[in-house]
């Protein structure tokens, strides 16, 4: 069975950081492979040229990066990748690039995608990065298989002190 993961990078990064964890992406990729059999893991991320080393690292860890151009609004960098994640996953579904997939986000904007994939028997699971910040649309409205990463960060992350926490350490919002 071919299983793909589609990861909302901003949501995962922000949620893990707020909980005090710095993800070790090599371990995280291994965890996805071991626990779910994920063949391809796509990370949707805002493109910031100064983060080139970070992008290289993520690719060496086994992730496929899908970039969104960013814009700067009042010194806040925006790179909303939601449409790219939806388009890529739906395109892969119709091209039969996977049998099942995992969505990694707690953003309610993906509820319609989760519902569609579930109706098509193509959704293995939604992994919400933070139980306390998971959207009502994912949590209650649709009966999707939902797991929270709160109890799993210790398997693939390092605990960070509160003074190290930076909600948008990668520079994107």
Strand order of the largest sheet: 4-3-1-7-8-9
CATH topology: Rossmann fold
> How many distinct domains?
1
By CATH, the superfamily comes out as: 5'-nuclease
The major pleated sheet works out as:
6 strands, parallel
Shape: globular
> Strand content of the residues, in percent?
25-35%
Helix content: 25-40%
Count the DSSP helices: 7
Q: What is the straight-line distance between the termini?
A: 35 Å
Order of helices and strands: EHEHEHEEEHEHEHEHE
Quick check: average pLDDT?
A: 85
Task: Examine the secondary-structure arrangement and name the CATH architecture.
Answer: 3-Layer(aba) Sandwich
Number of strands: 10
User: In terms of per-residue confidence, which ranges show pLDDT below 50 for 5 or more consecutive residues?
Assistant: 163-173
CATH hierarchy class name: Alpha Beta
- The Rg value, from CA coordinates, equals 15 Å
Briefly note the structural class of the backbone: alpha/beta
Protein name: NYN domain-containing protein
GO molecular function: RNA nuclease activity
Organism: Candidatus Nomurabacteria bacterium RIFCSPHIGHO2_02_FULL_38_15
InterPro entries: LabA (IPR047140), NYN (IPR021139)
């Amino acid at each position: 069975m071919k299983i793909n993961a589609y990861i909302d990078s901003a949501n995962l990064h922000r949620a893990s950081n707020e909980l005090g964890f710095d993800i070790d992406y090599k371990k995280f990729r291994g965890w996805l492979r071991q626990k779910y059999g994920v063949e391809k893991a796509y990370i949707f991320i805002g493109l910031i040229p100064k983060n080139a080393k970070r992008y290289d690292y993520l690719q060496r860890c086994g992730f496929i990066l899908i970039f969104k151009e960013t814009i700067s609004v009042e010194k806040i960098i925006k790179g909303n990748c939601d449409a790219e994640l939806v388009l890529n996953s739906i395109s892969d579904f119709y091209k039969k690039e996977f049998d099942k997939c995992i969505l990694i986000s707690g953003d309610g904007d993906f509820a319609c995608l989760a519902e569609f994939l579930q109706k098509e028997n193509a959704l293995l699971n939604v992994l919400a990065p933070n139980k306390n910040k998971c959207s009502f649309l994912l949590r209650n409205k649709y009966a999707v298989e939902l797991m929270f990463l709160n109890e799993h960060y210790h398997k693939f992350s390092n605990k960070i002190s509160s003074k190290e926490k930076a909600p948008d350490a990668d520079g994107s919002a």
